[in-house]
Amino acid sequence: MAVTTRLTWKEERSLQNLLGNVSLGLLYKSSVHGNSTEKMLDKCVHQGPTITVIYFRNYIVGAFMLGHFPVMHQDFRKPSASFYFSFQKNESTKMTTAFLSTALKITDERLTFYSSDDAIFCVIPSKSIVCMHTLLRKKLELNLSSRLIYSGWEVFRVEGIKDDAGYIRKITRATQHRNGLLAELRAYKPCAGLVSEIRILLLGPVGSGKSSFFNSVKSVFQGHVTRQATVGSDDTSITE
């Protein structure tokens, strides 16, 4: 029987969009393969870039690592750029990210990400506990305790990363730009009395999904599926 992830389609797509044109392959699931660092390493060692995802009742927290998992008890490697993320389990499935340089060490008891001498993020499988440093909780906008009980964790192989050099920097710049645009959109308010009608210009290359997006939005407001804009694929635009 196939082992499936607890991530929703929307959550998985959000991660793939953040990482670029990649795919996620589930390597390890604690409820299936056993809740220990040793059993996790049996499935995940020498697999390249990975994402570790920890599940709680109302949110998800995870870490992306560009290199291989280190072997157990290996001395700290040189810190490398990595990122952490959280999903708030609500209707909008909001994702928050934090970019830090960290090094990973794995022992019999725990999986720990270090920044300088501080343990930023730590998974203790024998007790189903995750510990998060104040800095990380602040960056991820999590108003939570530093020591939390989790309900499960998974590790994914990230496939499709073609350029290791500068990869995190590219993601960082793209995320900062995206977050800045979203913040401006959320904060925007037209001057009262000066705007009688709002019109939205939707821009994008041919085949990027402008018509599909328009139809989806209109269907929501109409309460049924509509296809006012013609959808298809061609070398030139087919929407009039």
Please provide a brief summary of the model.
A ten-stranded antiparallel sheet has the order 1-10-2-3-4-5-6-7-8-9, with helices on both faces.
What general outline do the C-alpha atoms trace?
A: elongated
Helix fraction bin: 25-40%
DSSP helical segment count: 6
C-alpha Rg (nearest Å): 21 Å
Strand content: 25-35%
Q: Give the overall average pLDDT.
A: 82
Enumerate the spans where pLDDT stays under 50 for 5 or more consecutive residues: none
Number of strands: 10
List the helices and strands and how they pair.
Elements lengths: L8 H11 L3 E7 H4 L3 H8 L5 E6 L3 E7 L14 E9 L6 E12 L4 E5 L2 E7 L4 E4 L1 H6 L7 E3 L2 E8 L7 H21 L22 H13 L18
Explain what you see.
One of its GO terms (biological process) is immune response. The chain is of the alpha+beta class and 240 residues long. The chain has 2 domains: 157 residues, no CATH class; 40 residues, no CATH class. Helix content is 26%, strand content 28%. It has 6 helices and 10 strands. It has a 10-stranded antiparallel β-sheet, with helices on both faces. A hairpin with a 3-residue loop joins strand 2 and strand 3. The model has no long low-confidence stretch (mean pLDDT 82).
Features:
ten-stranded antiparallel β-sheet, 2 domains, 240 residues, single chain, alpha+beta
